[in-house]
Amino acid sequence: MGKKKIGIIGATGYTGSELVRILVNHPEVEIALITSESRAGEKFSDIHTSFRGIVDIVLQPASQVEKTDLDLVFLALPHGVSMDFVKKYHQKPFKIVDLSGDFRLDSPEVYHEWYQKEHVYHEGFDSAVFGLPELNRENIKQSELVANPGCFPTTAILGLAPLLSEGLVESRGIIVDSKTGVTGAGVKPKEVTHFPNVNDNFKAYGLKKHRHTIEIQDTLNKLSSEEVSLQFTPHLLPVDRGILSTIYARPVKELTTADLNALYLRYYEGHPFVRITPEAPSIKDVRASNYCNIFITFDERTGNIIVLSAIDNLVKGAAGQAIQNMNLMLGLDETTGLKQVPVNP
Amino acid sequence: MGKKKIGIIGATGYTGSELVRILVNHPEVEIALITSESRAGEKFSDIHTSFRGIVDIVLQPASQVEKTDLDLVFLALPHGVSMDFVKKYHQKPFKIVDLSGDFRLDSPEVYHEWYQKEHVYHEGFDSAVFGLPELNRENIKQSELVANPGCFPTTAILGLAPLLSEGLVESRGIIVDSKTGVTGAGVKPKEVTHFPNVNDNFKAYGLKKHRHTIEIQDTLNKLSSEEVSLQFTPHLLPVDRGILSTIYARPVKELTTADLNALYLRYYEGHPFVRITPEAPSIKDVRASNYCNIFITFDERTGNIIVLSAIDNLVKGAAGQAIQNMNLMLGLDETTGLKQVPVNP
Amino acid sequence: MGKKKIGIIGATGYTGSELVRILVNHPEVEIALITSESRAGEKFSDIHTSFRGIVDIVLQPASQVEKTDLDLVFLALPHGVSMDFVKKYHQKPFKIVDLSGDFRLDSPEVYHEWYQKEHVYHEGFDSAVFGLPELNRENIKQSELVANPGCFPTTAILGLAPLLSEGLVESRGIIVDSKTGVTGAGVKPKEVTHFPNVNDNFKAYGLKKHRHTIEIQDTLNKLSSEEVSLQFTPHLLPVDRGILSTIYARPVKELTTADLNALYLRYYEGHPFVRITPEAPSIKDVRASNYCNIFITFDERTGNIIVLSAIDNLVKGAAGQAIQNMNLMLGLDETTGLKQVPVNP
Amino acid sequence: MGKKKIGIIGATGYTGSELVRILVNHPEVEIALITSESRAGEKFSDIHTSFRGIVDIVLQPASQVEKTDLDLVFLALPHGVSMDFVKKYHQKPFKIVDLSGDFRLDSPEVYHEWYQKEHVYHEGFDSAVFGLPELNRENIKQSELVANPGCFPTTAILGLAPLLSEGLVESRGIIVDSKTGVTGAGVKPKEVTHFPNVNDNFKAYGLKKHRHTIEIQDTLNKLSSEEVSLQFTPHLLPVDRGILSTIYARPVKELTTADLNALYLRYYEGHPFVRITPEAPSIKDVRASNYCNIFITFDERTGNIIVLSAIDNLVKGAAGQAIQNMNLMLGLDETTGLKQVPVNP
């Protein structure tokens, strides 16, 4: 049996190039098509020069998707654009992993409220599976359409899922204070990503209304018996990659740090990409890898639980998780092609 | 009347060099003495080469303090060392600003608990004034011994003082999630400050037990009618200078963002170094200056108050604040020599 | 006699904000006008938020220049735009310091060749003085129009002037390998200044044809009895500010490192902003200050002279040097308002 | 036939961890032993926490080498220490790749002159092969002892080999102006690698006497018919990984940029890790990969050839090249386990 054929729609951004970086050494699939409307006709390596001599495939217009025999397609497109492609491709014989935010929320209405945009494909919400394998592995295996989670939500949900599933913390008053690298803001230069505005600097942004707030809250709500309300504050780090979320919650019963570690180890048993660590993780501990490192502790003085959750936003927060989903959807071992060791330093 | 004569005890660290950087252009004082035990006999500019041709003073042993006619002495020494000097110098005719943590807490007992060290000069606690001019201006003016606040506490206390003074928030459950530049860890190379361990990286440290926790809590307690309990989590940024604290608190009554801004503007009226800003501050907004920028907002969705408080840890968090205290102690205008504009970018 | 009145034309860029940062504490001048076409009507501090409460002046359209009583005007405009303003203002009663490249070269023809643009004001070349005070102090004092040097040329010319003036090196085959911070590329976001393209990265650019090549070569030619030819290669550092040029030249006669140091000390005697240092300078040794640090050595093994020359590109490479020129043009002491100590770290 | 058994002597440094990072996914070898004197008994992942759950091998004392069945041993030790191990192990049945500088030079005498240290194992020089596969592939295949090249020399030699082999440039007067990331300075914290001394900073070091000078010069001498003399100046970049060398040479006959590119393409044909690129390479173009990117151009105005040569100092400049050598010594395909795509950004 030959390798599975993969298409990547959208080649100019960071998630597109990161998908290619990982897939090129994946033993069970081959990249059959990479598309870009704006750069069609150019070589992939003309845009991403670090791929010279490695991936010199010529970029195609998206119209080539339907002329190519594909098993699975990644949509590496901005939100609001992706939904048009899902609508068009949903009945095609290939499966879809959508890396945008277009099908992650509960309904078109919630989408409209937080993305300030009318959704054009309501039907997609019925079939889309939220692609966090540690929560939804079996559903993902059966799915034709996976909504790949956001980067911040991956840290926050993995960091909180055991506590909320077990009803161990107050579901209101949770704080998620997150810090992200700049690649999360995309490949397109803007004032906020201009080097002198970021270097040797640090600031919060998107206070009170960042779209990932609702993605985190909705997903945790499904795990929790009580209505979840959480405060999410993102900050911009002067680094390329990586998210660290510092999470504060209040237990509803007596717990020790040892109890919490036992719970987390048990909850993530059999999930190879979550590592419960004995030390506070740094973002370099997971850089360029698909791991999520989680540290949990209880402060007896204040009565708070503190969870630290770290990922590489381009890997476990985007392309790596998308490939983890692809592996499940194609019946492959979940870790195939994803065994890269973190690059540290 | 001539200029006041200043001594700086401890020249090799960042607070020492930052004191000199600012004082050299201060119109009302002159640096009469800089001491260093380990580098006595060398020029100040041999150690801090950016001062070549500007400050070529030869470093003296500390024994010169008593042979020099001085109006005020800065102790730029590590905690645990500083107390010996305060004990020795306290009855001398010059005033003292101590930049260490040795006299900031309420008592030798609290010091012992959080610094794991016996305090050798209990009497110092009776006369030491906590040198945060925005809270203690009049006491500082009268004081012979000022304990200059820690860097994290400066952000947290200035960020929370109006709320606690007015009894507007729950005094338990306050979260202070702080992020600091590396100079806060001192001039001496260690594993945690090794470039490849910090660059493009980010992590939390000192969870649950950082010494500044008690300094913040004790100071706020004096402002509050209720017992304060707070969670303080410091993180290490890959930047040289700057602290941003993201503070979460829950109001005890209905409040709007406008109410909060009005309160903060009123509270800090007449305090030229606190700026209540309409935008979330970045640490570069205050870099190399003595300002503290504060942003405050209320989230109606969650019911939380969020305060962002930013300083340069070496200036408002150390040397600049020490000079602000000096100005008050010497009867000068509080802002003399401290009007540097932030260096951004 | 009152303070001199200064206008700044162009407020949104880095040179504009850096001029304001320094001038606001200058004891002999006052900022009477700041203009911006694109942001007129807004406050200066709305654009540069670190100036909140310090410089809240409302920006004016450039048409206000002629309605304001001014002693001197800084043009902080892009090249190609500046020439129009010089043409218009040249006969006005105020003096002009032009920070663009429009009047630095020898003739409109040379300008056209290297800037690929027709020059609209040929007459300006007759009166413009190249504003490097260490070479042209007396001419600057008499000038109505000063062309403020480029950032790279400041390092290269100061680094080579003593050698070429004395005819000590081969005038052909000089190598200037320069490395600059990102602010040199301007305030406007572009692909080359997008944070993930710069951070943890390094590359050369503008090989063989950077416009500063001719500025360096033409200026050195005037000092040299032989025709100068030099190779200039700029590189982009992942830092905000600072240029270090590493310069290689071959002596025409026997020389020692001691000879070279004596020559440089003598050449720059009485020039307070050039420091001949005993150690290889770092860019932080001069950061946020108007100093140029120069280190010179002879390698007996290879027979090469190596010169290292470091400045802050926004200060001695732009705004600081412009103010140094202003001081000379207004009959003030050259160092007035420019005594800031380097900010390190 | 089973996998080859590999030992790594020295586990705490960057080359040790980088060897493990790559070898753990190498399909033809297994790591049978990792030693550390100072940390024996601890897990590899206790020291390098990003390996948690991936490489939890317990570190052994070096004495275990002789008790283990090994095919090849990497010495990831400081120079001056490595020679003792080579002396001891040279007659053992396993092959050796030495990553230190102890056997790279021509003779013990040259070693003594540049390393200021007596060499204890003169015999090693007879059999050691300089491990640059692009020059010495066949010799490496036959060798029992390979001296893995230095990081700077790898860029400089690969950048200059075609020109000197063909006698196309003046062999005297070559300039190699190199810029390196901080990991080149090792894992041990020192003043020069203290974060605030490197971040937002840049400086030259080791002027005139860096040990890699002689390694570059000696190797090029073997390719050249004329005696080579070159000036090598390293600089320290505020980045983790990567070296860019900017090389200047003067042609002895007429050449075009097209001629030079054709020459380089021909010279490196069949060498999969050297990429001759149409654009000036950035160090991120090769980060975390085994590639060396080379750009070459001729400047008609000045008559200089400029070569830009970029590697990751920890991969092609150390561990990756060592594994490339291992592949050749063990009869494997040269690229086995080394196909990682550069991590950019």
From TrEMBL, chains A, B, C, D:
Principal place of residence: cytoplasm
Source organism: Prolixibacter denitrificans
PANTHER family in the cross-refs: N-ACETYL-GAMMA-GLUTAMYL-PHOSPHATE REDUCTASE, CHLOROPLASTIC-RELATED (PTHR32338:SF10), N-ACETYL-GAMMA-GLUTAMYL-PHOSPHATE REDUCTASE, CHLOROPLASTIC-RELATED-RELATED (PTHR32338)
Pathway: Amino-acid biosynthesis; L-arginine biosynthesis; N(2)-acetyl-L-ornithine from L-glutamate: step 3/4
Subcellular location: Cytoplasm
UniProt similarity note: Belongs to the NAGSA dehydrogenase family. Type 1 subfamily.
Molecular function GO terms recorded: N-acetyl-gamma-glutamyl-phosphate reductase activity; NAD binding; NADP+ binding
Top-rank lineage group of the source organism: Bacteria
Enzyme Commission number, as recorded: 1.2.1.38
GO BP: L-arginine biosynthetic process
Catalysis performed (reactions): N-acetyl-L-glutamate 5-semialdehyde + phosphate + NADP(+) = N-acetyl-L-glutamyl 5-phosphate + NADPH + H(+)
Annotated protein name in UniProt: N-acetyl-gamma-glutamyl-phosphate reductase
NCBIfam families: argC (TIGR01850)
Residues in Semialdehyde dehydrogenase NAD-binding domain copies: 5-143
CDD domains: AGPR_1_C, AGPR_1_N
Record's keyword terms, sorted: Amino-acid biosynthesis, Arginine biosynthesis, Cytoplasm, NADP, Oxidoreductase
Function: Catalyzes the NADPH-dependent reduction of N-acetyl-5-glutamyl phosphate to yield N-acetyl-L-glutamate 5-semialdehyde.
Active site: 151
GO cellular component: a single term: cytoplasm
